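Tokens as discussed.
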């Protein structure tokens, strides 16, 4: 692979990751505001929002060090995740469940994106940037693991609140 091609694949991947992280914020922030009955989910989302802001900073530092102009970042919303998120905004009463599914899907999308980007960095002569990308990957994996491990308790709580008549509360 030509040096310039690899660099362009890497830079495009970094810009896409930057857009992905802003999309992540736009999915998580409205969720946190609406949660009333699931404080442990709200706390975790708040933590991951702070992590995501750090991830964006790491990506910007990598782009800066490659002398890429960040004013050109388009941050086009990802249609896949956009529709997943919109699904969660319904007033069906099971918003907490749909958001749990969408968040799990999104974290796994991020995991795949960073694994691919780390491969490009490894193969393409950017070993100095692997650590920053690995730090982002580790946070996504931890979040995906938490969502996986908490799906049962969130579902159990949803069912018991439903029994108690707390229908539409998130
Ligand atoms: Mg992220
Ligand atoms: Fe994430």
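Sequence:
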């Amino acid at each position: 692979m030509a040096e310039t091609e690899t660099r362009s694949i890497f830079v495009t991947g970094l810009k896409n990751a930057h857009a992905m992280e802003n999309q992540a914020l736009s999915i998580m922030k409205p969720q946190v505001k609406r949660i009333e009955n699931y404080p442990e989910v709200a706390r975790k989302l708040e933590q991951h929002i702070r992590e995501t802001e750090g991830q964006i900073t790491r990506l910007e530092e990598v782009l800066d060090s490659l002398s890429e102009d960040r004013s050109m970042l388009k941050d086009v919303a990802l249609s896949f995740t956009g529709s997943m998120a919109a699904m969660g905004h319904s007033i069906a009463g099971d918003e907490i469940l749909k958001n749990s599914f969408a968040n799990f899907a999104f974290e796994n999308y991020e995991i795949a994106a960073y694994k691919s980007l780390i491969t490009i960095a490894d193969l393409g002569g950017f070993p100095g940037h692997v650590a920053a990308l690995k730090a982002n990957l580790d946070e996504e994996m931890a979040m995906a693991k938490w969502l996986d491990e908490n799906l049962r308790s969130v579902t159990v709580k949803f069912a018991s609140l439903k029994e108690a008549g707390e229908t539409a509360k998130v």
